[in-house]
Design brief:
Elements lengths: L5 E5 L3 H13 L3 E5 L2 H10 L4 E5 L7 H11 L5 E5 L7 H6 L4 E4 L4 H10 L1
Parallel strand pairs: 1-2, 1-3, 3-4, 4-5
Length: 119
């Protein structure tokens, strides 16, 4: 992912969004935010997004639902799923939604940045 790319951070936790936003903007990315999958889908309709980083467990539209819907409309959009609750979902279920990378919370920032670089 090139510097200046538009990254959408989707998480219902405001502190998590702010932390990712600060880190990613510090690396030269333009960061957009959404509090859940529904808001994120609305952002996709009006903004060019190059990559989405999405929390799994959110109200209204969770990360898996967001990923399925986003990939239906934007099949080339890379999605990185992050969660602290992976034990409630099988890896097969997560990958079947179209997720390109999956990371556990708390996030290892080096692994996140490497995943972004590879996508």
């Amino acid at each position: 992912m090139k510097t200046g790319a538009h990254i959408l951070v989707i998480d219902d936790n405001a502190e998590a969004r702010l932390l990712l936003k600060e880190i990613l903007e510090g690396k030269g990315f333009a960061v957009f935010e959404a509090v859940d999958g529904q808001e994120a889908l609305e952002v996709l309709e009006r903004t060019l997004i190059h990559l989405a980083i999405v929390d799994l467990d959110m109200p209204r539209v969770n990360g898996l639902q967001f990923t399925r819907r986003a990939k239906a409309g934007y099949p080339q959009l890379p999605v990185i799923m992050v969660t602290a609750y992976s034990q409630f979902y099988s890896p097969a279920e997560i990958l079947a939604a179209g997720v390109d990378a999956f990371l556990q919370k708390p996030l290892d920032l080096a692994r996140l940045l490497k995943a972004i670089e590879q996508l």
